[in-house]
Design a protein that fits this description.
Layout (H helix, E strand, L loop, with lengths): L1 E5 L4 H12 L4 E6 L11 H4 L9 E2 L2 H7 L2 E4 L3 H14 L2 E4 L6 H10 L4 E4 L5 H16 L5 E8 L9 H14 L3 H4 E2 L14 E7 L5 E8 L4 E8 L3 H14 L5 E3 L1 H5 L2
Helix pairs in contact: 1-9, 4-5, 6-7
The protein binds nicotinamide-adenine-dinucleotide (NAD).
Nicotinamide-adenine-dinucleotide binds next to helix 1.
Length: 265
């Protein structure tokens, strides 16, 4: 499977280069970055801290989409919307890791899924995807009197909040309760907020240092509190999960798939 990487010089992009080079059945078709990027023309293997691999960083996005079977995209929301349209146009499959997409950008993804196969996940780690299932189950079993709070912490470079994973956990909890997250989410608290509303799902966001990604879901009842956590200590888990998704989606019909589909959960 020929795999291309957009945003190849980013934190995740470099990890993805290593994961594609290491994966059986995968071939690195190329990597692109903005034309202004300082690493343009550098060997991708070297860029990721490995031996040279003979493929250089470029800015020709369309050529990469035409050459690759699957593109992996961990960039930024506006870029990802453009890449989804390009995938629909060229027939390349797309693995979307970018988080923080707005409604219009998400619609571009859904539209592209009529023409090509895409996988989209807020988190490509196996552990978080298992956690999503457990949270849905716990929210179904525990009564509404158990207040659900979702706490996340990430490195100080992260630009969106709450994290895509925290929102995915919120959606899983809401699904377990048979409600829509948009109707019960409480994302910002400041000043005289009044008492907590029964049934709300609260979010708290911490930012600092080099934290790769910590998430805790709390079910706080009267007399007890159940907490379930995931802590990522390396971006490798996201990169290897995304490459697994790329190898899987290469053989799929047009449609929008999740990591649950990839893992067969
Ligand atoms: P980053 O800023 O280090 O990397 C993003 C890269 O994309 C940058 O190098 C930037 O120059 C490049 N880029 C932006 N627009 C581009 C364009 N039009 N063409 C080519 N390259 C372009 O960020 P990061 O930490 O690697 O995270 C990237 C995204 O992935 C974020 O949205 C983050 O939340 C998300 N993320 C998702 C997961 C997951 O498992 N789904 C895990 C980690 C990060």
């Amino acid at each position: 499977m020929k795999i291309g990487i957009v945003g190849a010089a980013g934190r995740m992009g470099r990890m993805l280069i290593g994961a594609v080079l290491a994966a059986e059945g995968a071939e690195l078709a190329g990597g692109v970055e903005k034309s202004s990027h300082q690493d343009q023309g550098r060997d991708l293997g070297e860029l990721a801290g490995f031996e040279p691999c003979g493929v250089k960083l470029s800015s020709d996005t369309r050529a990469l989409f035409e050459a690759a079977d699957v593109i992996i995209d961990f960039t930024a929301p506006a870029a990802t919307a453009l890449h989804a349209a390009l995938a629909a146009d060229t027939g390349a499959r797309l693995v979307v890791g970018t988080t923080g997409l707005d409604v219009a950008q998400q619609q571009t993804i859904a539209h592209a899924a009529q023409k090509t196969a895409l996988v989209q996940a807020a988190n490509y780690s196996v552990g978080v995807n298992v956690l999503l299932g457990l949270v849905e189950q716990m929210a179904r079993i525990l009564p509404e009197s158990y207040d659900i709070e979702i706490l996340e912490m990430h490195h100080h470079h992260k630009v969106d909040a709450p994290s895509g994973t925290a929102l995915a956990l919120g959606h899983a909890a809401a699904a377990g309760r048979g409600v829509k997250l948009d109707d019960v989410a409480d994302k910002v608290r400041d000043g005289i907020t009044g008492a907590r509303r029964l049934g709300d799902i609260g979010f708290a966001t911490l930012r600092g240092g080099d934290v790769v990604g910590d998430h805790t879901v709390m079910f706080a009842g009267a007399g007890e509190r159940v907490e379930i956590s995931h802590k990522a200590s390396s971006r490798e888990i996201f990169a290897s999960g995304a490459v697994r998704a790329a190898l899987w989606v290469g053989g799929q019909k047009p449609g929008l798939y999740s990591m649950k589909d990839v893992l067969g959960l």
